[in-house]
Amino acid sequence: MRILRHLFTDHSAARRAFPPATLKAIGAAISRDELRHDGELRFVIEASLPLMHVLHKQSSRTRAIELFSQLRVWDTEHNSGVLIYVLLADRKVEVVADRGIHAKVEDGTWESVCATMQQAFATGRFEAGAIAGVDAISDLLALHFPRAAGKANELPDEPVML
Fold it and tell me: Residue 152 pLDDT more than 90?
């Protein structure tokens, strides 16, 4: 069943769920929220995994960690980068947090953010769910890494559509 979902979930499905206006709204939410903290957020959407990854049973979590590395979310001054990864074919949301913020936030909190987003996505509210996730993570970052004067934006704010 998973193979079929990955074969039939294509870029057009991702564009329907996350059209340009929604991507712009997510990027704006990240830009706005990063003014409150010294963390860095990346939002990645992937319609489906390549067939070889599915056949090798790559999980959404493993893929998220892979992208966390590839997009250099770990490479921030305060080790406070956070990746939000959406895999549409598996209907999964994963949050990968760098060691600085992960040490201060329990795993259950990240899972709760993912669950909130997945619930919104299940009802077709992709923009609202994404922004709720960005805001919830930003609240945690603001609590543990409040904004310091002169902090530069270290990573792009625009969502990535793979």
Answer: no
Question: What is the per-residue pLDDT across 30-57, written as a single tens digit (0 to 9) for each?
Answer: 999 999 999 999 999 999 999 999 999 9
Q: Are 96 and 65 in contact (CB under 8 A)?
A: yes
Q: What is the CATH number of the domain that holds 29?
A: 3.10.310.50
**What's the DSSP call for residue 98?**
-
Cα distances (Å, whole numbers) of residue 74 to 39, 105, 155:
11, 16, 10
Q: Is residue 150's pLDDT more than 80?
A: no
3-state DSSP assignment of residue 82? strand
Segments forming the whole domain that contains residue 73: 2-161
In the chain, DSSP assigns E strands to 40-46, 81-87, 92-97, 160-161
Q: Which of 60, 41, 157, 153 is nearest to 101 (CA)?
A: 41
Per the structure, the count of domains in the chain is 1
Which pLDDT score, from 0 to 100, does residue 89 have?
96
